[in-house]
Amino acid sequence: MAVNFICQRCGAALPAGGQPDGSVVTCPKCGQAAPLGGAARTTPAPDARAADLAAILAIRRPSPRLLSYYIMRSLVAGPLFPIVIIPQYFRYHTMHYRFDAEGIAMGWGILFRRETVLNYSRIQDIHLSSNLLERWLGLARIQIQTASGSAHAEMTLEGLLECEAVRDFLYERMRGSKDAAQGQPATGAASLPPPGGAVVLEAAAAAELAAALRAAAAELRAARVALESRAVEPARPTDAR
To answer: Which of 170, 189, 221, 224 makes a 20 to 30 Å CA pair with 125?
Structure first.
């Protein structure tokens, strides 16, 4: 099977170009020198990786096995089975996913719609868990945690048959986002004015600010005049009863 080498630092494919093992090439993504062979890992050809990536990005709905799992789990409730299965049934039929270049989106619900969007850069940890029934059905839950400080997962992906491939995909996106953030200068520092320098406003912003200040000054003058007129107005005598 045709293989190509990838960079251990960022996971990008290395341009081997028929060079022998042990050669050192420059990674086109991170710009670091990476060896071919030896410590370098090999992966399937780009066509296979592209096919796996396309399959993950095409995921929109959970597997029908998830509904079977909900039904089997609800049977434990016994006489309360109809009450337990109804919300699970609607959860399955309204659940949808979307994977793109920026992050993941997940939603479900009819009366109370819930939508969750999570960027890859916010992901801190990924857990893959499944109970005995889920393993029997070939399912697993992917629990995604962020730096929000909550003990619970920010997002839980259910009903995915490609759970391991999705987990690896999320790990690659998480590492790629962190490497990109470390390689870029801190945002906000470039927008600060130099020490002792004057802040230069654009003409439109300066005109809008001046108009707002004039309007506020006019309102203050009107309020002051109204207060002064009330202060000098003589008190009206009250009718004695």
So the answer is: 189
Assigned architecture for domain 57-181: Roll (2.30)
The 10s digit of each residue's pLDDT in 22-52 is 667 777 666 667 666 544 444 445 566 777 8
- Start-to-end Cα distance in the chain: 110
Distance CA 61, CA 98 (A): 9
Listing DSSP states for the chain in one string gives --EEEE-TTT-PBP--TTPPTT-EEE-TTT--EEESSTTSEEEE-HHHHHHHHHHHHT--S--THHHHHHHHHHGGGGGGHHHHHHHHHHHHHH-EEEE-SSEEEEEE-SSS-EEEEEEGGGEEEEEEE--HHHHHHT--EEEEEETT--SS-SEEE-S-TTHHHHHHHHHHHHHHHHHHHHHSPPTTTTTSPPTTPPPPPPHHHHHHHHHHHHHHHHHHHHHHHHHHHHHHSPPPPPPP-
Residues 27, 28, 31, 37, Cα dihedral to 10° = 0
- What are the domain boundaries of the chain? 3-44, 57-181
User: pLDDT for 107-159, tens place per residue?
Assistant: 998 888 889 899 998 898 899 999 999 999 999 999 999 887 677 888 999 99
Neighbour count for residue 180 (Cβ, 10 Å): 14
Please answer whether residues 62 and 93 qualify as being in contact, where contact means their C-beta atoms are separated by less than 8 angstroms.
no
Two tokens, residue 54: 């396309």
> Are 159 and 92 a contacting pair, CB within 8 Å?
yes
Instruction: Please tell me the distance from the alpha carbon of residue 135 to that of residue 232, in angstroms, as a whole number.
Output: 86
